[in-house]
Backbone:
């Protein structure tokens, strides 16, 4: 039987991507689902809609609610929470390093470290020194990792992930795409997405 | 002990308000929560944000996803689903009649009838003849109900509900507001909102 799988599209600046990234690995393991981590950039999609910042900044009532809702979610799942300032943080460097890490085997741990630094500790993840510190904590030599992150191949890999997300219908983060193309948007659809992946795999065998 | 209570803000043109309105009564009863039904108008809020139609129309990828997500939700909860055309439907008349019905005692049943006509049968709820038929099915004489719905008092009551929603921080529908002001947005936060209402009431006694 083919193992159930799901694409996990997330963006380091995205608030609801934080609980999704911190929680998906044990939930997916328990469900028997393989997760393909796909960091991408929401910025180009937002720009195409005429937005120059997060919609949570453009629509203050929605933004106020989101911060409160996120705090409730983090409390429920025992995740520390601190609101990043400024919001959104610059996520380009982290996304490139994550793609380098995902090809090298330390990507998932790095992604969780970035989200924790940003949303549990309120640290500026756009700064190279912060990223270097996270890499060192993971036992990864920063200089070659950053060099790889800035290579043309990794830049292209990040652009490709963003393009694939758009092709799959993704318009926000986190999003989950099953093998049959079924799209789920939001941390609150994560369990449903995993269950879907299991169901379509069982049906196909 | 004071009985837990929640304000249920919804809009007849709102897609996710449909499953919320169809499901809230038995869930609230099981939780021991009183629900105050508050039909309001999203249109003025959307206009204030510079939108002249639903954001699901303005942002096509988000709209495509919403229809699919709504179909999944309806399937899960055994609710018939048919996409209204055009979308959004004009909701002003239904909202006014609902306010008349809520003061007269047939409001909740009328609200469910409107949502079912719109989202299960795809009927044009902006048309007076459709509303008249729904009233007749409920054993309510249409002419006096429609006259009351068009009275200055009911027009003011609908404006007041919309104003109270905005004051409470509501920016979309459905929304739920607990007695302590805690706001929950979306059909997928309904159970959490009911649990919150129960918890704060238990804490206060």
Residues:
């Amino acid at each position: 039987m083919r193992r159930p799988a799901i694409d996990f599209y997330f963006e380091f600046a995205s608030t609801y991507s934080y609980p999704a990234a911190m929680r998906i690995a044990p939930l997916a393991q328990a469900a028997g689902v393989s997760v393909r981590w796909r960091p991408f950039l929401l910025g180009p999609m937002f720009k195409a809609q005429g937005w120059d910042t997060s919609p949570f900044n453009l629509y203050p009532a929605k933004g106020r609610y989101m911060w409160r809702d996120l705090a409730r979610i983090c409390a429920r799942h025992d995740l520390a929470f601190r609101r990043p300032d400024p919001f959104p943080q610059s996520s380009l460097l982290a996304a490139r390093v994550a793609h380098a890490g995902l090809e090298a085997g330390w990507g998932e741990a790095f992604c969780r470290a970035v989200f924790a630094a940003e949303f549990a500790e309120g640290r500026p993840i756009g700064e190279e020194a912060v990223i270097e510190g996270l890499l060192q904590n993971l036992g990864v030599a920063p200089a070659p990792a950053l060099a790889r992150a800035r290579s043309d191949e990794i830049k292209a890999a990040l652009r490709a992930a963003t393009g694939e997300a758009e092709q799959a219908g993704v318009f926000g983060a986190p999003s989950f795409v099953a093998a049959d193309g079924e799209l789920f948007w939001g941390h609150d659809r994560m369990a449903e997405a995993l269950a879907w992946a299991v169901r379509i795999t069982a049906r196909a065998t």
